[in-house]
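Example S7 (C-alpha cells).
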C-alpha cells in the first residue's frame, strides 16, 4: 500500500521526462562504452577530439533549437498570464480595434485581454492559442515578441545544457 501513495505524488508528465532522460543516458553510456572498446582494439581512432571545437559549435546551433522554442513558449505563456488584464470600457482599447483578430469576436467589458508592445490587443486565451503554435510575433503586424538576442541566448544555453548532459565522447 505504501508504494501507491508514493506514486500518486508523481505526475504522468514527469514519468515521461524521467524515462526520456534514462533512455538518453543509457544510449550515451552504451555509445561511450562501444567507442572505448573499439579504441582499445585499435579499430577506432579518437580523432573526434581534434574536430571537437568545430563539431561542438555546429552542435550548439542544432541541439538547442527545438527545446529553446519550447522554453520561449513557456516564458511567453507565463508572461501572457501575468500581463493580461480585464478590459474596461474606459481603457482606450476601442481606438485600437474592439475585435480580436484571432477569434474575430468582439472584446467585451471584463474579458481578459493582452496588449502587446506594438499596441495590438487580443483575448488572453486567443493569444495563448497563437503562442502554442510557436508564433512569437504579433498576429497583425508580425512584430517580434521576443528579441533575437534572447532567442540566441536561450538556444546557446539549452544546447550547452544538452551537451553537458549528453557529451560527445
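Recovered sequence:
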Amino acid at each position: 500500500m505504501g508504494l501507491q501513495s508514493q506514486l500518486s505524488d508523481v505526475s504522468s508528465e514527469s514519468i515521461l521526462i524521467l524515462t526520456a532522460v534514462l533512455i538518453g543516458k543509457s544510449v550515451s553510456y552504451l555509445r561511450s562504452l562501444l567507442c572505448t572498446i573499439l579504441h582499445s582494439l585499435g579499430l577506432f581512432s579518437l580523432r573526434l577530439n581534434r574536430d571537437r571545437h568545430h563539431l561542438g559549435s555546429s552542435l550548439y546551433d542544432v541541439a538547442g533549437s527545438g527545446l529553446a522554442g519550447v522554453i520561449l513558449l513557456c516564458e511567453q505563456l507565463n508572461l501572457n498570464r501575468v500581463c493580461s488584464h480585464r478590459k474596461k470600457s474606459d481603457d482606450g482599447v476601442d481606438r485600437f480595434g474592439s475585435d480580436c483578430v484571432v477569434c474575430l469576436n468582439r472584446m467585451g467589458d471584463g474579458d481578459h485581454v493582452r496588449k502587446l508592445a506594438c499596441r495590438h490587443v487580443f483575448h488572453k486565451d486567443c493569444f495563448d492559442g497563437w503562442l502554442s503554435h510557436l508564433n512569437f510575433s504579433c498576429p497583425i503586424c508580425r512584430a517580434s515578441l521576443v528579441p533575437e538576442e534572447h532567442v540566441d541566448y536561450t538556444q546557446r544555453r539549452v544546447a550547452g545544457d544538452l551537451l553537458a548532459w549528453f557529451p560527445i565522447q
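Notes on this example. The two ends are 44 Å apart (CA to CA).
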